[in-house]
Structure formats: C-alpha cells, structure tokens
C-alpha cells in the first residue's frame, strides 16, 4: 500500500455502519471525523437468510452519504469491510455490487475471527500499555467476538453467532420485554458459549473489556441512571440485574425512561443486555470496563501496518508454511520464477502479483494431507481456514490459483471463475514445472509475453537439451492449455524423436 496522508475505514456492521477518517503522521493515525448510521442491516434477514429490499435501501442510502464524504480519496486509502450479516446473507453478492457502486470503493467481507483480530487491534491501541492479559468482548448486531490478548497481540480469537439485533428480533418480538423472554435469551447465549467457556475462564485473563456500541450503551445507561453500586463504574452483574428489572417493569425499552439511552439503541438494547448478562455470568466477570477503540480503529491501524510493511498477511502465510511443513526453499524458487514470468507477461496488476506470491508460498501445503491431488487439498485449506489479515475474497482468489496450478485445466475449468487471472495461472504452472527438480538449476527464461488467450515463452534450448524430462512435461503443458482454447508456444522445445531440432516461436 502506498503511503497516504489521510485514510478511511468503513465498517458495515449488522446494526450500524461507521465511516472513520484519520490523518496519518508517521506510524500513527489521528482521527479527523466519523459518520455513523443505524442501518440495522441484520433486521433485514428473513428466515431463509435473504436480505430484504427495505434493509438494502437503508444500507445503500447510508453508503451514498459515506461515499460523498470519501469523494476524492484514492482507492488504496479506503478499506471497507462487511461483517456477520454479509457473511450469512445468501444474496450478499448481489447486494455488494449495489453497495460498492453507492460507496465508490470495493467492499470486502471478512470472517468472524478476522473481525475479532481487528477489534482487538483497535481496542489494544486505545488502552494503556500493560503486560497483563485482557479479555475483550464485542457484542455486535449479528455476532459476538471474544478475544484474549496480551499487549497488542491476540492469543485467542472466537466469534459466535449471537448479536443484539438477531437476539432482539428472536426473543423480544415487537419490543415486548418479559422475564421469560430475558431468561430464554440468556439461556440461548449461555448455550452458544459453552464450547469456548473453558478457554475464556477467569484464570486466562486479568481484566475484562467491552467494546463497540452495545458495551458503551450499557455502561452509559448504568452510570447515568445510578444502577451500579455506589462508587462502581463500567458494566457489573448488579447493574445489569437492576437494568433488566427496570426494563421488565416498563414493558419496553422506549418507555423505560432511561437517561442516556438513544432511540436508535433502544430497539436493540434488550438483545445486547441478555447476551452481556450471559457473558458476565458464564465467565464470572465482576466488572467490565469499556474501551473507546473498536473494529474501525483496528482497520485503520492494520492499513497503516501494511503501508509500513508490517502486513499481518505475510506473517500468516509464514505461519501456515511452518504449520504444514512447507519446503521453504522450493517455495522461494517457485515464487521468484513465477514473479519474473508474471512481470514479463506484461501484467501490471499489483494485487494479482501479490496473490501470485502468496500462492507460490502456499502451493504445497496440501502435501501434508496427501500427495495425490495435493493441489485440491491446498486450495481447500486456504479457502476454509482462519487466516488472520485476509478477507474471504482474498482467500478465495489464492485458493483458485492453488487449485489451478497443476493437473488438468479442462477438468478444473467448471470450478474456476472469471476473476482467476490466466497470466497468474500460467506463470505459477510453468514455474512449478520448471522447478520440479527442486534444485537451483533452473532454466534461463529468454522472453515471455501474453496476448488474447495467447502465451509465448522462450527458454534456453541448451538447458532443455540437458533436461529432457522438463522438455516433455512442457509439451504436455501446451496440450493442457489447448484443451481450454489457449494458444501456447514455447520456443526452445525439441522434438523427442530427433532430439536436435528446436522449435521456433511463431
């Protein structure tokens, strides 16, 4: 990422959309201004997980206003991320096309654990430096993230499918607040938490911190209405009990007369309260403080890290290579040759070059599962694993390259989409073939160029004569491309029958 003086983060949450603009000074960001829209996108999900037109219209209108603020920003200076609702909505792809047109910038959908990582990044940078471990809880509109971390480093990341919008919709229909409804919602939240409770038990952290809208709203309401014990602040079990009782007595949040409860938060407060009560109970939290930082700040910090070459994605790839016992030297050989070929083919897309580099590093991770069809195993792992720093779309793009890097292109064609980038596929496949001996004795590439469904490659013919096996597999590679309608010519190849005549590129 180029260095920009001003950057922006857009957070498309299930309850609210945020746009945060910040000034960059060195390796720090300073907030300039921000926009918030209570879109409640999650309310628009029907029982079939399809976003209705009304919620889409609210979202598009909000993004148009964000787009006006961001007009004039360079593409690399804005990062827009979608969370839980866009993860689960079946018509998310169609909605995203309209949303990107309204915003004027690409929108990426991230996995729950990546959301948790960015939340922790934002929270940790807003709190005093300490060596003690923290538990961060972020109750969003459609999901709740739990992170245990030390300093700025997350140690455990969890994301559960429960949020203030979804729980309010499910358990507090038409805004009716009853003791039975709260009990049902809290039991459901506790049940959802059961598989993570052991890892988040009180002995694993020293301080509990809440982030984002639900935690801030609850802390404010408890404070302004004197619901905590005298001298206490933040979120406490006693305060939540008092708030719950007051809401049940009133029958709905809007008529409870709570100071500091804004209208746009009142509609989703019951679900957030039920989840927070379950969290404090299950994890034996006596007091939770509230942080100013949240995911949007984490996005800005992550963008800044990429600009200063501290890209979390590179660290993730290195970890995956280690975890799956990848031959690092072979990955390096393939990566260098693939990058050289890609550049010579005339592709100037920096993002495509980066995907290719990661694919080269990860192309053999599937061998740890089984050698037969390892390209499929590699693709599956990358497509489905939690990879900190990567969006789902980035993982999908890399997985496509891994799937296509060997074996029959014709058989794989139905599984590949138009965005794959055929020059990247060609560069990776040829690099893997030319490096198959796993030595530094790689051929000298004389030239490479690409046209419309055409590739031309010139290899040192003397080297090919000394490496007849490679000569043979390259001839087979040409036939693979011909089967899917590509015209590929490789000069330097010789006819196996006479072993002396070289083909000239046409």
- The CATH superfamily title of the largest domain: Hypothetical protein af1432
Based on CA atoms alone, the radius of gyration comes out at: 27 Å
At CATH level 3, the topology of the largest domain is Hypothetical protein af1432
**What is the number of domains?**
3
**Helix-residue proportion:** 40-55%
Count of DSSP H/I helices: 20
Assign the CATH architecture of the largest domain: Orthogonal Bundle
Strand order of the largest sheet: 3-2-1-4-5
For this entry, give a set of tags.
506 residues; alpha/beta; Nucleotidyltransferase, domain 5; Hypothetical protein af1432; 3 domains; 5-stranded mixed beta sheet; disordered C terminus
Topology:
Elements (H helix, E strand, L loop, with lengths): L5 E7 L4 E9 L2 E10 L15 H17 L8 E5 L1 H5 L3 H12 L3 E3 L2 H13 L8 E7 L4 E7 L2 E8 L3 H8 L7 H15 L13 E5 H13 L12 H14 L12 H4 L2 H14 L5 E3 L4 H13 L4 H12 L4 H17 L5 H13 L11 H11 L7 H13 L4 H4 L9 H13 L10 E7 L2 E6 L1 H6 L1 H16 L3 E5 L15
Parallel strand pairs: 1-4, 4-5, 6-9, 9-10, 12-13
Antiparallel strand pairs: 1-2, 2-3, 6-7, 7-8, 11-12
Helix pairs in contact: 1-3, 4-11, 5-10, 6-10, 7-10, 8-10, 13-14, 13-18, 14-16, 15-16
Summary, kept brief:
The protein is an alpha/beta fold and 506 residues long. It is built from 20 helices and 13 strands.
Could you please describe the fold and organization of this structure?
Mean pLDDT is 92; it is low at 499-506. The chain starts with 5 loop residues before the first strand and ends in a 15-residue tail after the last strand. It is elongated and about 90 Å long. It folds into three domains: 6-110 and 297-307, Nucleotidyltransferase, domain 5 (2-Layer Sandwich); 127-291, Exopolyphosphatase. Domain 2 (Nucleotidyltransferase, domain 5, 2-Layer Sandwich), CATH 3.30.420; 312-491, Hypothetical protein af1432 (Orthogonal Bundle). By secondary structure, it is an alpha/beta fold. It has helices at 53-69, 84-88, 92-103, 112-124, 164-171, 179-193, 212-224, 237-250, 263-266, 269-282, 295-307, 312-323, 328-344, 350-362, 374-384, 392-404, 409-412, 422-434, 461-466, 468-483; strands at 6-12, 17-25, 28-37, 78-82, 107-109, 133-139, 144-150, 153-160, 207-211, 288-290, 445-451, 454-459, 487-491. The strands form three sheets. Strands 3-2-1-4-5 form a five-stranded mixed β-sheet, sandwiched between helices.
């Amino acid at each position: 990422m180029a260095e920009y003086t001003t950057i922006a983060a857009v957070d498309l949450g299930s309850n609210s959309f945020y746009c945060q603009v910040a000034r960059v000074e060195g390796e720090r960001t300073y907030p300039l201004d921000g926009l918030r829209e209570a879109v409640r996108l999650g309310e628009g999900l029907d029982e079939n997980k399809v976003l209705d037109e009304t919620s889409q219209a609210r979202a598009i209108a909000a993004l148009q206003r964000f787009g006006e603020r961001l007009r004039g920003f360079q593409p690399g200076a804005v990062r827009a991320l979608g969370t839980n609702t866009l993860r689960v909505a079946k018509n998310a792809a169609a909605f995203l096309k309209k949303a990107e047109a309204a915003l004027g910038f690409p929108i990426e959908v991230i996995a729950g654990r990546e959301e948790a990582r960015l939340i922790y990044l934002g929270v940790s940078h807003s709190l005093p430096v300490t060596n003690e471990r923290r538990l961060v809880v972020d109750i969003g509109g459609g999901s709740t993230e739990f992170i245990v971390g030390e300093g700025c480093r997350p140690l455990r990341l969890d994301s559960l499918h429960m949020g203030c919008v979804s729980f309010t919709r499910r358990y507090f229909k038409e805004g009716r607040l009853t003791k039975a409804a709260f009990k049902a919602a809290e039991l459901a939240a506790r049940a959802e938490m059961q598989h993570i409770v052991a890892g988040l038990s009180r002995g694993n952290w020293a301080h509990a911190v809440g982030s984002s809208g639900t935690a801030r709203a609850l802390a404010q309401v408890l404070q302004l209405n004197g619901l905590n014990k005298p001298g206490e602040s933040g979120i406490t079990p006693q305060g939540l009990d008092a708030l719950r009782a007051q809401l049940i007595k009133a029958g709905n949040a809007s008529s409870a007369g709570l100071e500091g409860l804004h209208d746009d938060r009142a509609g989703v407060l019951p679900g957030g309260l039920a989840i927070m009560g379950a969290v404090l109970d299950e994890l034996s939290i006596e007091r939770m403080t509230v942080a100013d930082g949240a995911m949007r700040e984490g996005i800005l910090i992550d963008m800044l890290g990429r600009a200063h070459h501290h890209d979390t994605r590179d660290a993730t790839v290195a970890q995956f290579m280690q975890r799956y016992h990848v031959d690092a030297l072979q990955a390096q050989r393939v990566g260098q040759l693939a990058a050289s070929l890609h550049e010579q083919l005339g592709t100037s897309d920096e993002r495509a070059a980066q995907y290719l580099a990661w694919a080269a590093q990860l192309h053999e991770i599937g061998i740890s599962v089984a050698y037969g069809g390892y390209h499929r195993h590699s693709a599956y792992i990358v497509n489905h694993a939690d990879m900190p720093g990567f969006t789902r779309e980035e993982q999908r793009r890399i997985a496509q390259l891994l799937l296509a890097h060997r074996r029959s292109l014709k058989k794989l064609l139905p599984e590949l989409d138009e965005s794959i980038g055929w020059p990247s596929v060609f560069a990776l496949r040829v690099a893997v073939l030319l490096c198959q001996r796993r030595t530094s004795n790689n051929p000298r590439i004389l030239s490479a160029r690409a046209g419309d469904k055409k590739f031309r490659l010139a290899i040192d013919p003397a080297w090919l004569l000394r490496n007849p096996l490679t000569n043979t597999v390259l001839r087979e590679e040409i036939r693979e491309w011909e089967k899917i309608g590509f015209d590929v010519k490789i000069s330097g190849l010789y006819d196996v029958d006479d072993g002396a005549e070289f083909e000239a590129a046409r």
